[in-house]
Amino acid sequence: MSVQDGNQGIVIAIDGPSGSGKSSTAKGVARARDLRYLDTGAMYRALTWWMLDHGVDVNDAAAVAALVERPVIEMGTDPSAPTVSVDGRDVAAEIRGKDVTGSVSAVSAVPEARALLVRTQREVIDAARRESAGIVVEGRDITTVVAPEAPVKLFLTASAEARAMRRSKEVRTSDVAATQADLARRDKLDSSRAHSPLTQTADATELDTTGLSLDEVIGLVVKLADEVGEVRQA
User: Fold this and answer.
1) N or C terminus: which one in the chain shows less Cβ crowding within 10 Å?
2) Cα 25 versus chain centre, distance
C-alpha cells in the first residue's frame, strides 16, 4: 500500500490510548475535510462480541484463532453516522458493553485476529483513497502497522485523570476511579502484547489533548493535514 501517491486520497492515521480523544477527533477531522472515517477499535470489539455471543472462551487464543474468519464484519465509513455490523446485525450498541470492553484486549492480542482485521482495514483504506478525498483512521496500531506510510501520523495522549473523566462520561458512570483503573489495565495489556503493541513512532506528531477543547484538537489536526496536503500538491 503506497499511501503517499498524490493521485489518490490522503490518509490521516491517529493512534493513542482509550480516552485520549481519538474517536471524536477523527470523526471531526473527517467531517471538516469531507473524508471517510474508520474506527479500527470497533472492528476488534465486533469480533470480540461475536466470540462472546457464540460462547467462545476469549482467553483461549487457539479457540479464537480457529474462528476469526467466521463472522462477517462490515464498517460504515460516514463520519456523521459510522456503522458496524456483524453477520448483517447492527451491533454498534452491544460492542460498547462491559463484557466486550473487558474482553477485547484478549481477542486483540491473538495474531490471527490482528492479521485478518489489518488486512480488512487496509482494504477499506485503499477503497477510500481510490473513491474519495481520503480517510481518517484511528486505533492503536495505525501508524505502526496498518498504514505506516500515512503522510499524516498522530499520537494522541491525555492525563490519566482526563481520560478517565471522558470515558466515564461516555459510558455514563460516576465511578471515575474504577474507570481509571480499567483504562490502566487496558493500557498495560495493549502496550505489552507481543503483536502490534500500542506505541508511538518517531515520526508521529504527539498531541496532548488534556487542556484542549475538542474543537481546538480538531483544528490542530486539520491544519497539519492541510499543510501536508499542500506539500503533496506542490
Assistant:
1) C
2) 11
Question: C-alpha cell of 52?
Answer: 462472546
pLDDT at residue 233 greater than cutoff 50 = no
Q: Give counts: helices (H), strands (E), the chain.
A: 8, 8
In sign, the C-alpha dihedral spanning 5, 1, 205, 181 is positive
Of 93, 75, 91, give the one whose Cα is nearest residue 139: 75
Residue 169 burial (CB count, 10 A): 13
pLDDT digits (tens, 9 = 90+) for 83-99: 999 999 999 999 999 99
The contacts of residue 66 (CB under 8 Å, 6+ apart) are none
Cα–Cα dist 47/15, whole Å: 20
pTM to 2 decimal places: 0.87
Q: How many CB atoms lie within 10 A of CB 160?
A: 15
Reported as a single tens digit per residue, the pLDDT across 9-40 is 999 999 998 888 899 999 999 999 999 999 99
CA atoms within 13 A on the CB side of 214: 12
Q: How far apart are CA 14 and CA 77, in angstroms?
A: 15
Task: Provide, rounded to the nearest whole percent, the portion of the chain with pLDDT above 90.
Answer: 71
R_g of the chain computed on alpha carbons: 17
Contact 122, 135 (CB under 8 A): no
User: Which of 193, 200, 192 has the alpha carbon at shortest distance from 111?
Assistant: 193
Q: Cell numbers for 116, please give them.
A: 485478518
- Whether the CB-CB separation of 107 and 47 falls below 8 Å is answered with yes
137, 147 in Cβ contact below 8 A?
Answer: yes
